[in-house]
């Protein structure tokens, strides 16, 4: 399991196992700015030793590592720990993503990725694991206001009743507001599996979410053959 927070530093503590020195330092700085301490390990064997220390709330794990590859490292960690794991890798084939998730990863993020995407994934995994992170308690996008701790959505000050999954979808889109979120990215983040052309579950949840947002539902746009985009509704009349 993850560590118990100490009075010295209550921020979530992540272990990044990646032999890319430049990327590691960039991610360390980016996550630190958003309230997450990051320890770096450059090879699989060192990463395994640190991962089993019980001192971390989250593992960020590359697949192609010297000494011990990421899949084997994850399998060894899972024998003794349920600490949340996000795989970070340039191996983007669906078979590799499925292998990572089957081995016990909580999420799988293909390289290259933006720091904002990684931060959204980290927040989601920490939230599901019950380990919160420092930061604002509310998120505002136009007339939408998300109360993060209570998992509530307000539109123009009025609450909207959403299911847990609908809230997760909306929060993910809100954190990426103005950016098209690919269906595959959203599916892996929410369901821990890549999207398939025949899987309409995500579309159904999006449709229900739009209906519950009423006249503001148009703010969630479908980008054909790509994914979804949340636009900020401006003014009292609806989506901008």
Automatic annotation (TrEMBL):
Residues with PTM 4-aspartylphosphate: 62
Annotated OmpR/PhoB-type domain residues: 136-232
Keyword Cell wall biogenesis/degradation: no
Keyword Protein biosynthesis: no
Keyword annotations from UniProtKB, A to Z: DNA-binding, Phosphoprotein, Transcription, Transcription regulation, Two-component regulatory system
Residues annotated to bind DNA: 136-232
Pfam families membership: Response_reg, Trans_reg_C
InterPro entries recorded: CheY-like_superfamily, OmpR/PhoB-type_DNA-bd, Sig_transdc_resp-reg_C-effctor, Sig_transdc_resp-reg_receiver, WalR-like, WH-like_DNA-bd_sf
Protein's GO biological process: regulation of DNA-templated transcription
Residue ranges annotated for the Response regulatory domain, each copy included: 13-126
GO MF, one example: phosphorelay response regulator activity
GO cellular component, one term: protein-DNA complex
PANTHER family to which the protein is assigned, alphabetical: REGULATOR OF RPOS, TWO-COMPONENT RESPONSE REGULATOR ORR33
Name by which UniProt lists this protein: Response regulator ArlR
Species, as recorded: Aquisphaera giovannonii
